[in-house]
Amino acid sequence: MGIKKMAQLQKNEGGELSRELLTSCWFRIVDCYRELEGSSYRLTYEASPGYALIVSAKRHGIITIDGMLYPQTPHAVYFVMPGQRVETNYTSDGEQVLYRFHLEIGSLTNDVDQPSPMLLDLRQVNVAADTLLLSYCEKIWDNWSTNDPADRFASQAGFQDLLHLLFKKQGQHELALNQARNYMNNNYPEAITVEDLSELAGMSRYYFMRSFKEQFGQSAMDYLSEVRTNQAKRLMDEGQTLQKIAEKVGYMDRQYFSSQFKKHVGMSPSIYNQNRKSKIAAYSWPNIGHLLSLKIIPYAAPIDQTWTDEYRKKYRFDIKVPLSHDYEFNREALWRARPDHIVALEEMIPDVEKEKLREIAPVIFLPWHRESWRMHLLMTAQFLDREKEAEKWLTRYDMKVEAVMETIPASFRQDRLLILNISPRGIKVWGKRAGTVLYDDLKFLCATGVEQIELTEYVETAQLAAFDADLILINVMSDWQSQMRWDQLQRSEQWQGLKAVRNHNVHYTAGHSWLAEPIMEYTAHRHHHLLEELNQLFCAL
């Protein structure tokens, strides 16, 4: 059966299921909230009391549902299942208006007991520029808040209008992309190409590739590799041979499978098999980067970071115990998991909590601010009896540094460097510690004042001239607020008057390493990737 024929059958089956659920379930509001939120972080639900629907009205940010990150934007709606943990992080300042609707969902027949599959398909619904969404939310809240039974009846009616809008917004474009993704989920052992998927979606090859990445945050082929890799990990848990695993996940050649696995996971299948037997907990984000450099994927770790989803996509399958920002939540999770070792940070955990962690397993607290990332790596390796692995890693890294130094343009060698990041919150300057790969390893000169900034510091446009930089490396985040801020900055007289700008010595960076928060990614793993990206940048100049 051909790919198009098979996918059409799956599409029809999915459509029948959705129609059955819509005609067999009822929805009603149990409670309603309209909240003004000014903080940057909030734990909305430690465990959701039931089904919930969340609507954001103003600020952009990240919403984390059970460790899975979704972009939180105005005119987007999020469905939450009972018991799920929900956290929000906002990337811009200002007041947020958040609507939360607690729902009861039931069956009109005896045939539909679990409405969850439908809501899983509607985990996030974008209702871009649709003024009806917020007007419905406000109407529901206004009527609900009076406590009058007749008004609450009107709230229920308004909620049905809101659901109708959401279900209708699951249009053909989004449906076609979901069908392509579902096809990969169900048929990953088969030979699948971008041409096959674009034909299935009814789009041109280029339009499909662009649309898929915009919708899901990664290319279709990267997603297919992720699916195959996670399926391979499951088969490894069952003890199957690598040759059989390769065939079952879509690779006829074992060597090619091994190379793809290493590319995606960062280590070969054989090393992955050896290391997965240990249960190491990375208490904080920076600990993950050092463990990965030692070829250890943590058994327990936080997976809700907001600056890049690289770890989540690559290692979500392996991190069996998600951790969070809450001490009590983490402690209870680690008590249940009983890890062999815990790696944590000295300055970021209260002394009382440190003692409680020591009762769970042997633990090391790295002196984050007092020592360099190299020493953090060596201390972690010594604690886990991986000194030889750390020494080999550092040797390879230093050799890569020497190779990259050969690609640096001669004109840069005496230039004083300033590193900038443009985000929704403003212009961020990297200090010497944040830019250690450039300033310490590659021997770039610091712009005036950079050495006085430990990690990063937000500055105003008028302050940039004081750095007196000859060379500027700049990264602009892709969201519309950052892009608008960057456009305004380029047109300002203060920017145009900078020495580096006048001399056309401003260079733009890309890649995940530049989006990372230096304070949370001051690690061996991140610096290796940053070095790779710098090599590409310098070779292109």
Tell me the span between the first and last alpha carbons: 50 Å
Number of helices: 22
- The amount of beta strand, in percent, is 15-25%
**Average of pLDDT:** 84
Q: Which geometry do the CA atoms define?
A: globular
Class from helix and strand fractions? alpha/beta
Instruction: List segments where confidence is low: pLDDT < 50 over at least 5 consecutive residues.
Output: 5-17
Radius of gyration: 25 Å
The count of strands amounts to: 20
- Main sheet characteristics: 6 strands, mixed
Q: What is the helical fraction, as a range of percent?
A: 40-55%
Summarize it.
Helix 6 (194-201) crosses helix 7 and helix 17 packs parallel to helix 22. Helices cover 46% and strands 19% of the residues.
Q: Which key phrases capture this entry?
A:
five-stranded antiparallel β-sheet, alpha/beta, 22 helices, globular, 541 residues, 46% helix
Give an overview of the whole structure.
By secondary structure, the protein is an alpha/beta fold. The strands form five sheets. Strands 15, 16, 17, 18, 19 and 20 form a six-stranded mixed sheet that branches. A five-stranded antiparallel sheet has the order 1-8-3-6-9. A hairpin with a 2-residue loop joins strand 4 (61-65) and strand 5 (68-72). It starts with a helix and ends with a helix. 33% of the residues are buried. The model is unreliable at 5-17 (pLDDT under 50).
